[in-house]
Write a structure and sequence with these properties.
Helix content is 20%, strand content 33%. 30% of the residues are buried. The strands form 8 sheets. The protein has an 8-stranded mixed β-sheet. The longest helix has 27 residues, at 561-587. It has 9 helices and 34 strands. With 588 residues, it is an alpha+beta fold. Helix 1 packs antiparallel against helix 2 (59-75), helix 2 packs antiparallel against helix 9 and helix 6 crosses helix 7.
Length: 588
Amino acid sequence: MTFAFPFAFVALLAVPALVAIYWLRSRHKRQPVSTLMLWMDQREAREGGLLIHRLQTPLLFFLELLTILLLILAAARPAVTAGDSARSLTVVLDDSFSMLAGSGDSSRSRALTAVEKEIDGGRYSSVRLIVAGETPQILGEAARDLDRDLLKEWRCQSPSADLAEAISFAFALGGNRPRVLVATDQPPPEEPTDGRLEWWAFGTASHNVAFVNATRSARDPQERCLLEVANLSLSPIKTGLVIGVAAAGEGSESKELQRSVLVLGPNETRRILLKLEPGAGILRARLDDDALAIDNQIVLLPVTRRQVRVELRFQSEVLKSLVDKALLATGSVALTSANPELIFTDQSEAEADSTDAWLMRFVADGDAESYLGPFVVDRAHPLAEGLLLDGVVWGAGKTTPPANTPIITTGNIPLLTDVARPHGRHELRMHLRPDLSTLQDTPNWPILIWNLIDWRASNAPGLKETNLRLGSDANLTVGAGTHAVEVRSPDDRSHELTARDRTLTFKADSVGVYEIHAATERYAVASNALRQEESDLGRCASGRWGDWQSSGFQAEERSVGWIFLMLALITLGVHLALTSSGASVRAK
């Protein structure tokens, strides 16, 4: 029960006055008389006086006291929660990493204190928590007494927070007219007006220098790194920058590559280009401490250029020369006959030497002709990316056997087909007569070979990328027969995930280095907070917007003051009946 006018309880001062009336009574002086025969009323008068006697509590006293209390409760305008629309609270928690800003007393810690205080009031039938990251997520089930351990899962490690979607989600989950509380560090885009939403902001506008971009590539024998440092303020700022490399593994010492002082103008972004020696280890860069620590350091792991082991088995020197030149242009293959991952051949009897080897078989049909198109290309297939066959002449047989998956066809003639084999292997078949074709003389030829090499490399065990932005997906391909994969996050939490179809995807939702154990293989992937919009603390603010007590939200409560008023009238009626009956008895 709540009271809209609690000031009415001041009227409780009338209770001592009533007690005083029954406590302070008069005593008349005793007068001896000769007889009582002529006295009509022999009772002692006790209607009032100044003499103190033992407190007496007849029925009338309790009726008068009850009437006073009922009238006071009615004047306080009591209200109770309606049965079917019992008040529930849904708290939307901003999970973006800008909530970590602040030295010691961050926006998150201030918001956490305020939310716990609101929940501890015990005024809600149920409380639900929603974490607002790139997509909203529910923390646990709705409960009257919230589990404090759920709030520990609010880590503020998302690269952004879609508060609008999270608020809509909260209203959809809350049932009949819920209360929604938003805890963030930003002011609302507009003032809440419907009485169901309150917006609490706990941010502080601050200067901040941050890494906003960091990449590492291996396009030549030397690795290259690009770092971008931004001053996200309207004032010039000076900060220190330290860059070092360390060999992979715990306990390895870091070798300092560069130490400098950056003087950045207002809203200036500075680019730093680095060249690393082949085999350089983990690169770490660090800026001086400021309002937000999470974007002051980065980790870039070595980028391994995936080399696909390729074997050539050709009888035709022409085809061998064409394939060899295209493979050389990719720069991503190693020609070998030992345990190849991809075999190019024009021999019909050639077979894969292992369950991991793919086959690319060229078929030179005897009864062939040149086709000018139109060519039908399955654009969803990895080999079709970037192919433009307009004006291409393709020489192939007049009749070819049907295939499981045609990639390129002309009419009813399949020119390039794909057959999936067990263990994820693929056997591709290309019908091609170079002497009747111009395909090998166009850019489509190296593009086709590059697509095949890249496709095969992406299906080999390993990570697709080793350096990610916070919130990105890490994609891992595991070896045949591997199903259980252990992933250890930077905060030392361990999860066991299941690979399906030899692939595994998980979100890098913490800053630092993830360790991945897949059977006997070990991998690592780094996640860095690189989001300029979140690192910009100039738009942070503190304040509260919205009002749950506005008229649009009163439908959830029902006034019960009339009940106390009716009870007071009934009590007065009983009091009147008793006093009237007593007067009539005295009159007789």
